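Hi both,

Apologies for the delay on this - the queue was longer than expected. I finally got the fe (ii) ion-bound model through. Below you'll find the protein sequence and the ligand SMILES exactly as submitted, and right after that the structure tokens for the full complex including the ligand.
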Amino acid sequence: MQELRDKFDQLVEKEGDQLAIEHHQEETVTRIANLINKGTVWEKVWSHPLVLDACKHIFKGEFKVSSLNGREAHPGGGMQPLHGDWKKPRPDFPKVHLVNSIWALDDLCKENGAPRIIPGTHLRPELPEDVLEDTEATHPQEVYLECPAGSIMIFNAHTWHGGTINYIGSRDVFCMACMFQLMVYNNKIRKSGYAQKQHLD
Ligand SMILES: O=C(O)CCC(=O)C(=O)O
Ligand SMILES: [Fe+2]
């Protein structure tokens, strides 16, 4: 884990104000995007057998790695609205399109910005921003990912969740979100795959 933390710090230094421009930046958070392409050390994260097994169980079908981003809440900052990670329509509701795994690389607690999650909301067709008056307010069913460093929360990413405020102000409140996506094949891809195979044969 120290290896992952060190690499995170190195990348923060190297990227400076360009950090996470490929994805999105947050004012009170240090974010790094696209870690998959920023070092072999991250292979330990996106190919972890436990996480892949959980994805297999949740998706019940083929899936691919989608993204790997790092996030560190600054002292006094880090609030993230409750959100589902899948923003597209769900005509096939309640099919699971995304699984997220949040990795705690430091000890997390309610006071230092641990992410919160609202269990059961993966079975609601709405997004939190469409039904909640305030997506940053306390939610009666919220559960915080309070855990020692090295823990992982693997969840159906339609479930409403979000980072919270680092009140204590401790440095090194570092989480990574590694996302996996259900494979969707359309006829066009199938056909071109078939044509290519024929050609190779
Ligand atoms: O790092 C966190 O606290 C939550 C991250 C998250 O929800 C996300 O990146 O989608
Ligand atoms: Fe998220």
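Main takeaway for now: The helical segments are 2-15, 43-46, 49-59, 128-131, 187-200.

I'll put the files on the shared drive as well.

H.
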